[in-house]
Design a protein that fits this description.
Helices cover about 40% and strands about 25% of the residues. With about 475 residues, the chain is an alpha+beta fold. Helix 9 crosses helix 11. The structure holds zinc ion (2 copies).
């Protein structure tokens, strides 16, 4: 094919050269020039005619379904549900998928909904993922559809809010399902819609989220070949997409350090092994891991000790100190390095003072690196560009936040990208960050996401015929 194209290109070029040098009265001259330009236009556009038509049809369908997607989103925003409690949201999704003739499984990973849309032609299984859960945040946006929901959380009455945009993710994917169901006869493969609970985590000891859905078999029957996911970005302009190959979001792990000393009267420190002094030394020494051990020219890393508890009055040297922190890394090698160094630094610093340190990392909360398969990212970049326009698809810096989409992308090649949700022209520094009471996603944001997901599915199926 490549050789044929090159030969065609040579013919066209020679036609154009002839056009330049041939005398004006030559009869074939205008014809050959026209043919040359026509072929050149064909050759300069790498997107095959067929997928161009799909992209156009998708664009029209996305505009048409946008008001419905906005209505779904307002409704879900007004009725937010915390992780593993997304009963109402799941019900709306399941009913919509069923109305489209899509095969539906419910209660996958507690409240998860899975839709299977089989195209009329054979091909790969493409999974699309949206997370459904809200956060224990009291909304202060003054939106007409703001949440007034309150729940008991950790023994305290707390507001519930879609403060991360998962309401938009659900609504976009419901729109995508409707468009793709309408293109069933053109679909060369199967689409698996994964509506996932509890991305923001579950109480300690509970199971949930992507990991539990995988455990319950979401990646099998039919086996998923590839997975795509998107996330709103409240500080990125509407219409823009950002992406990053390889490590795009950090691996997160909680670290727990317990320093065991020897108690004494506060007036006689020489009789004690003071765990508070040892903890202070440990915290300081941990700062050298990122500054002196991690190769920060390759990937960033974060070590934060955010909680420290020890002692209960001024004149008692306590027996132990408990510390909690968070570790963020972008590769498995860095992850191992940082965990090993935390253990060494804490244990040896304690030992040098006659104390001991028990280190657990990862403790409780752990998500791996959200890794965008590099070959897949390169292959699918044109699909994102078709959705937003080439100039609106931007390479992003790594994000030190974490995502449990990473568990899916550990099983099959995955691509996770970001869609702008900030009104055009706004200064990003004035847009409220995710997880805050003032967080806002603009209604005009969703069509970019719908187009991106639909183009990814159709282009991937076109490129990976079975
Ligand atoms: Zn979040
Ligand atoms: Zn989120």
């Amino acid at each position: 094919m490549q050789v044929k194209l090159r030969r065609l290109h040579a013919i066209v070029s020679s036609l154009i050269r002839q056009n330049i040098t041939m005398p004006k009265h030559h009869l074939l001259n205008p014809l050959s020039a026209f043919a040359g330009m026509f072929f050149l236009i064909l050759l300069s556009n790498p997107i095959p005619a067929q997928t161009r038509d799909y992209a156009q049809a998708i664009g029209t369908a996305a505009d048409k379904i946008a008001p419905q997607v906005i209505a779904w989103r307002h409704d879900i925003h007004e009725h937010p549900e915390l992780g593993n409690q997304e009963f109402r949201t799941a019900d709306i999704i399941a009913k919509h998928l069923q109305s489209l003739g899509i095969e539906v499984q419910t209660k996958v990973g507690v409240t998860g909904v899975v839709g299977i849309l089989k195209g009329d032609k054979p091909g790969p299984v493409v999974a699309l993922r949206a997370d459904m859960d809200a956060l224990p945040v009291e909304e202060k946006t003054n939106l007409a559809f703001a949440s007034a929901v309150k729940v008991m959380y950790n023994g305290k009455e707390t507001g519930v809010m879609h403060a991360c945009g998962h309401d938009a993710h659900v609504s976009i994917l419901m729109g995508v399902a409707e468009i793709l169901a309408g293109m069933k006869k053109d679909l060369k493969g199967t689409v698996k819609f994964i509506f996932q609970p509890a991305e923001e985590g579950v109480p300690p000891g509970d199971e949930g989220g992507a990991a539990l859905m995988i455990k319950e078999g979401v990646m099998n029957n039919p086996a998923v070949d590839v997975i795509f996911g998107l996330h709103m970005d409240a500080q990125l302009e509407v219409g823009k997409i950002t992406y990053r190959p390889a490590g795009t979001m950090a691996a997160v792990a909680t670290v727990k350090i317990t320093v065991n000393g020897k108690p004494s009267h506060g007036s006689q420190p020489w009789s004690s092994v003071d765990p508070i002094v040892v903890s202070a030394q440990i915290i300081n020494n941990l700062q050298t891991i990122v500054s002196r051990n991690v190769n920060i020219t390759e990937n960033p890393a974060v070590v934060t000790i955010a909680s420290i508890h020890g002692g209960n009055r001024d004149n008692i040297i306590s027996e132990k100190v408990d510390m909690l922190g968070t570790v963020r890394t972008f590769s498995e090698a860095d992850q191992k390095l940082v965990y090993d160094r935390i253990k060494q630094v804490a244990e040896k610093t304690a030992e040098s003072a006659g104390a001991t340190a028990d280190v657990i990392v990862p403790y409780e909360h752990y998500y791996p690196v959200t890794f965008n398969n590099e070959a897949l990212t390169a292959a699918m970049l044109p699909s994102l560009q078709k959705a937003a326009g080439k100039e609106n698809v931007l390479l992003s810096a790594p994000k030190t936040g974490a995502e449990d989409f990473s568990f899916f992308a550990q099983k099959v090649p995955g691509l996770f990208f970001f869609i702008g949700g900030m009104p055009k022209g706004q200064d990003p520094s004035t847009a409220a960050p995710h997880h805050t009471p003032q967080f806002i996603i603009d209604d005009s944001a969703f069509t970019t996401g719908i187009r991106a997901m639909c183009n990814l599915v159709l282009d991937y199926m076109q490129m990976n015929k079975k």
